[in-house]
Design brief:
seven-stranded mixed β-sheet, alpha+beta, five-stranded mixed β-sheet, 429 residues, 12 helices
Amino acid sequence: MRLTAIDEGHLRNGLPGTIGIAGVFPGEPFDLERVRARVRERWGGLERMSLVLRPPTGSGALSGHRWERARPFDPGAHITTTDQDLRSLLADGVSHPLPSERPLWRLLVAPYGLVLFAHHALLDGRSLETVFRLLMDDAVPPPAPRVPAAADPTATVRQRPAVGAAAVGRELRRIGAPGRPLPTASPGEVGPSVAVVELDPQVMRTARRQPAGGRGATLNELLLSTYAGALRVCHGPLRAWPKGSNPFYATVPVDLRTRRSAQQLGNGVTVLRMPLPVDLESPVARLAACQDQVAGFDRRCAAHRAILPALQGAARAVPWLAGVMARRLARPELTTSLCTAFKWRDHPSRLHGRPLTRVVPLPQLSPPGTANLCLVHCADAYTLTVVSHARAGDAELIGAAVARELEALAVSDVSGGSVVRAGQGLRTS
């Protein structure tokens, strides 16, 4: 089975491609054999979890990679125990590719819970969440594939508005507009770093009610605006940055799945670029600027739905084109920071009777001059993970700065324009 152009691109961008998700549970470590049995029961019927990557035959430019199903499904080789602490385990995982001789995922049973790694060519972030959720005690197995709506005479299909050439052109220009990488030290001092920050729940609840009198803020809007403030704290206003006067862009993954395909595994997202308001001084002003941009995401997604079939068709016909596009988009001036946030909605979730108390995401490692952030709300726990490929220790600096910006936003006095700093209210691990 040929890979899609998106899957192929994740293999050809020159990066490890490992992403992950961890679940924290109280109590003693899980029994390894019970976890293997649960995986065999819940994932055994998921074809995606049995796919092995096969290299191109002959000319890779003409054939591309292929997926081949491994039979029988054997979770034993994928599921092992570890005593490694969570931060160092995530740092090792994101920096190294998974072994290619078996399906590109592994599950680790640790003293604090479970950690799932996968290659981005196999699963995207939403897919990781989906398969991890299937391990929980009360998880509902995914429904059987449904008949396509076009073949169902009783189905009601919502018609999407037509997308004009001007909208497509604007989005193409956004995709290719050069930005600015993160300021870095000399090349020899650049390296990966990972930080996991546990955010104060009360601070998060208060920050989500900003701006006062408004509709409130989503997790993505909070992450984007406070990251802009953190960059200003860590590196100064953009005019003080090297390499020109271009904006600093963040990319936001947006799921293109519908209700019918919500459980579909693989890669079903696109990414929308937006300039971050690093030069705005007020936390509330930065939040309002990000909200204005996020409000246009639905319209921009319509343009991506029009663009993607043509790009994927061309890359499928000429597989090396997927590599060219992937390497270009992975350049730090085009994809400098991936920022995403989501809420774990199944609460309480339990595994073998023990409650899931925290979800820790792991975004992928991007080229030097980048940092990727992911924020997850689970139960009453908010967890931010930063994966940086810049100066040593930048992940910790960025994570702590985002936490302080959230505190500043939570106590902002909009009418008076003043900002009061709260206490630390955070822990890093």
